[in-house]
Amino acid sequence: MALIQVTAIYPGTFDPMTVGHVDVAQRASKMFDDLIIGVAANPNKRPYFSLDERVAMAREILSDLPNVTVQPFDGLLVEFAAEVDANVIVRGLRAISDFEYEVQIAAVNRHLAASIETVFIAASQDYTFLSSSIVREIESHGGEYAEFVHPLVVDAFSLKRQAESS
Length: 166
Ligand code: ADP
Prior knowledge:
The protein is α/β, with parallel strands linked by helices.
């Protein structure tokens, strides 16, 4: 057992949370004492789901993991990490294409806050192709995407589509 309490943050836009994200969260929750899912407001990405919707879905989806909490944040990740006393940042790596960007972000975060370590978790082979944007793309064209997300995400998409068409 580690001598210090290790709190990790798994940050992302989670627009919406996919089974790939859930897989990373489940594995990270076994590695650290506490895991905080940091849902980034990310207004420049113009998320399809609001911050409140993304947080509510992530809370419900991960409610069976006792050491996992979900919190929204805005602004610099390292500042949020300091606020919640986190010493580790978790990111998922799907492919070489993720690598360059993720390593760059990790280097910037280390520059800004040297005491916070970034840990990469390799995506499960089944989910290396999976991203929130792929899910949104399939859904917007009426394709079958239910296997890539928790059922409550499918319900959330239907509700939003109904609201848009009324
Ligand atoms: P961001 O906008 O910060 O990239 P995302 O919600 O797209 O947020 O992703 C959050 C994190 O989860 C990133 O580290 C991303 O690489 C990782 N991730 C996304 N999809 C998967 C997946 N299918 N398997 C493993 N990790 C993933």
